[in-house]
Amino acid sequence: MPAQTPLPVTLTGRQVRLEPLAMNHLDELFEAGGGDEELWRWQGGPAPQTQAELGDKLATVLEAAERGVYVPFAVVHRATDKAIGWTTYMDIDVDDERLEIGWTWYGRAYWRTAVNTESKLLLLTHAFEDLGMGRVQLKTDHLNHRSQAAIARIGGRREGVLRRHYRRPDGTWRDTVYFSILADEWPEAKHNLAARLGEAGHAG
Questions:
Q1: How many domains does the chain have?
Q2: pTM of the prediction?
Q3: Domain assignment of residue 204, yes or no
Q4: Looking at residues 124-150, what average pLDDT do you find?
Q5: Distance CA 71, CA 88 (A)
Q6: I need a surface site. Which of 29, 48, 103, 142 has the fewest CB within 10 A?
């Protein structure tokens, strides 16, 4: 089938629910990740120290969503029914049947848990099986080894590095590592993701 433009939708798993991101998630998001320098180091820092500062970042995402640049989701932890981070579809190209999963963060309390694995399973299933995408890409800073390992664990294949790609907030230059999953690789990746979710208490 021809690829379809992603639209705001709610995707529900056992651990998390991905729902359209909105300003009313701000209080819970700040509780989960406000002021955490290590978390925001990889999100274009500096870490938001107040709700207003995080609100500015959230407003930027929502404004991009209004222009059709992003389709953003709040990541809601079902056990608490609280937003613990956000993630987006971005770099969307329906003609070329591709999109990127990016600008993703979760509160530190949820690192190395099932949250990332299940979030990616939901997003990838929707992209490949509902939207008809042929390629989903992910990218990260070459110094962010935790993120690179997490992408590899969900089945992302490392493609290469764009050197001197972005200037970081501190003025240094970032090389960007690209990964992807293709539609014909998705069945195996999906099987492996489902198996990871079956591992008690350790998926991330």
A1: 1
A2: 0.94
A3: no
A4: 96
A5: 5
A6: 142
Q: What is the mean pLDDT of the chain?
A: 94
Measured between alpha carbons, how far is 34 from 44 in angstroms, rounded to an integer?
14
Rounded mean pLDDT of 85-97?
A: 98
The pLDDT value recorded for residue 200 is 38
Q: Read off the pLDDT band of 199 (50, 70, 90).
A: low
- For residue 6, is it within any domain? no
Side-chain-facing half-sphere of 64: CA atoms under 13 Å: 18
Answer yes or no: is 142 within a domain: yes
Domain that holds residue 186: 11-197
Q: What is the mean pLDDT of residues 22-34?
A: 97
Question: Distance between CA atoms of 1 and 64, rounded to whole angstroms?
Answer: 27
Could you please report the per-residue DSSP string of 125-181? HIIIIIS--SEEEEEEETT-HHHHHHHHHTTPEEEEEEEEEEE-TTSPEEEEEEEEE
> Quick check: is 3 in a domain?
no
CA–CA gap between residue 117 and residue 111 (Å, rounded):
10
- The CATH number covering residue 71 comes to 3.40.630.30
DSSP string, 38-89: HHHHTTTSSPP-SHHHHHHHHHHHHHHHHTTS-EEEEEEETTTTEEEEEEEE
Nearest Cα residue to 132 out of 179, 89, 178, 99: 99
